[in-house]
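Dear colleague,

As promised, here are the two records you asked about, laid out in our usual form so they can be pasted straight into your sheet.

NAME FIELD: protein one
SEQUENCE, THEN STRUCTURE:
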Amino acid sequence: MKKVSSGKLKDYKAVNVYLSLGSNMGDRQYNLNEALRLIAQRAKLFEVSSTYETEPVGNPDQPRFLNLVARIQTRLAPLELLTLTKGIEAKMGRVKEDKPNAPRPIDIDILFYGDQVIKNRQLTVPHPRLMERAFVLVPLAEIAPKLIHPVSGKSAEKMLAELKQGVQGVFKLPGNG
């Protein structure tokens, strides 16, 4: 396991990265597709899970989300990738609000950056809450069931099986995988 403290290293080799994408405003499927298109301009898009409709977490008085997980390969350093994803969110109309879990046209989270563990003010990888989120673990386990969390040592399928609330509220959309 590699430990990265700053998230900034020069001459990165291409690394596999897993991203979680979600949308609950506007044309949700278009938003997901557009975000993937914009990501693919700077990284190689390898695999995309099915799309899942999910109940909102933390703020139930808002529309349901569409969620998916994508595996990309990039040479961008972790903080450069974070800048890219936040730039895509802003370009697509996401406004950061004071209240967490507010509705959003797009949300892009870096789940894993290779097998690296990154913790600084801007970025924590693996994503700190991925082990508690069915809307992340279901699509992640679909495309990478054997992927090992570098801190817990558990596979994606094992984390999903151990999820306390189960997969309640996560529905695979028909006709997409």
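NAME FIELD: protein two
SEQUENCE, THEN STRUCTURE:
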Amino acid sequence: MILVWLIVIPFLGGLLCWYSDRWGKQTPRWIALATMLFVLVISLWLWVTGDFALPAKGQSQWLLEWRVDWIPRFGIQIHLALDGLSLILVALTGFLGALAVLCSWQEVGDRIGFFHLNLLWILGGVVGVFLALDLFLFFLFWEMMLVPMYFLIALWGHSGSAGQTRIRAATRFFIYTQASGLLMLVAILGLVFIHYGNTGELSFSYGVLRQTEVPDAIAPWLMLGFFIAFAVKLPVVPLHGWLPDAHTQAPTAGSVDLAGILLKTAAYGMLRFGLPLFPEESVAFAPVAMTLGLVSIVYGAVLACGQQDIKRLIAYTSISHMGFVLIAIYSGSELAIQGAIVLMVAHAFSSAGLFILSGQLYERLHTRDMRKMGGLWGRLPVLPGFTLCFIAASLGIPATANFVGEFMIMFGTFPTAPVVVVIASSGLVLAALYSLILMQRVHFGPVYREGPLPGPHWREYFMMLVLLALVLLVGLYPQPLLDTTAVLAGNIAELFAGAAGDHLIDLSGEVR
């Protein structure tokens, strides 16, 4: 039942925030913060008390599972389950959700209750995505994230932008994700009706549909429906068109949740549903997926180098980082898959830090244009140092979490796809270039405007220090993440090995 509460609490908290708006501007903020901290505490408690030892073959991989019939006539259940991967991502949602509330404390000044309603409902939908095993329920939560995110961008978008620009960015985000979601719905229904044709029973159960025999002529198309939906949200080039505008126009809290959490729902969907439901088709599609990952790495890094808007630059770096995740997922290597999970967590921390810093710079300079910054080192206390640290983390400097994830991905992928790794490494070189561009334009060079600039508030210090500590903690001691996700990564690697046939991939990532 605790799994149900992990989902219900954000939705109830959002409604309470909306209602409490009449009690004062600070009340919704404190309620939202308490709500997400409660989700985080429950997740950490489950993590500390959970047993993540490798189970015996055939044993259930779920730490917790809860199931009840919802619409029995159509085989729809409320089926929730928690394993190592979903637990890490739920905890990440609680943590970044609390940070999103903190970084919007001064930024959002109107309709505060409604703002936190939308913010918490996004996070509630994300938690539902990470816990749902019934495919109808998964799709319901997948779509539930869209409407509140639309309002977050359209109503509280960047105050320096015209309203029409915010609405256009929000509409593009909605159209991209809604259209791709419909493709996934068609694929889910196709799988359900094929199962019905085989057995005479309707079911949306993940475990049941995994055993469904799908005709060879249809299976690739169903797999593609899932892949496109996840590729749009990841995002993968050329399906990334919504991301730069959405990040640029979103409030800081929206950018933190978008980069830190929403993009991870796509990678989670690939690992949880896309590959296990269609293992043979995924193996056959792997060269295409890895090529798209390479294109995303290089394309995102190259375009990041040419941006003048600081939030747009950070958005393109996210495309590049998620390209590494896509390559790892389709590599079939246990080591690379665990590296992808580490990189997902690391990117959440580093990108959240950079977006929060960009929001703090905007509060002081009232611009996102890096050409109108410059000379801030020495004039703005502490923030340039934090910027340098998070740029180093995003770049993948040793001892940071990003380094661990990228190293594991390349080391695990190299035995089966050395050419892919060699080309992907060029993205790291370009990462150094756009990192230097950001640092030089914002904090060095000639002073663009004179006058004193206020230093960070204690709340800003707290957010930066906690994020930086986590980046270093995961970079220096990633073992808890690796132990928690070992079962899932091993299962995916074994699935690939069985589906690959002649191209067997050992669980260690070695070709035999």
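A couple of things worth noting about protein two: Residues 54-59, 502-512 have pLDDT under 50 and may be disordered. The two ends are 44 Å apart (CA to CA).

Best,
R.
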